[in-house]
Amino acid sequence: MPEIQLGVIESRFADIIWAHEPVTSSELVKLAAEAFTWKRTTTHTVLKRLCGKGLFVNNKGTVTSLITRTQFYSMQSRQFVEEAFAGSLPAFIAAFTQDSPLTPNEAAEIRQMIDHAEEG
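The chain above was modelled as a monomer; its predicted structure follows.
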């Protein structure tokens, strides 16, 4: 899947869509007005940009996702680890835990994830 870059506001707007989908474009205008004080034209411009990036589709005024929120943030996380840590998950975890040790619950959850990943 191609790399998709979003700005902070685009990410927040995408989160609104994911939280309410399927959502009508008129409802999105109301939600964006509440969240960002956007006018209708701004909402439609940003929606068109997100559709152009392949995240959403606006079919006859109903907006749905082409990529789930989980899929998108998973791609972003992998991309970050690849770029910042040369793809090394252990290097990322070492950096992440350098100043703040894991709690016993966090360590247990991570062990569970590793076990699940090893099982395939």
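The helical segments are 8-20, 25-36, 40-52, 69-85, 89-97, 104-119.
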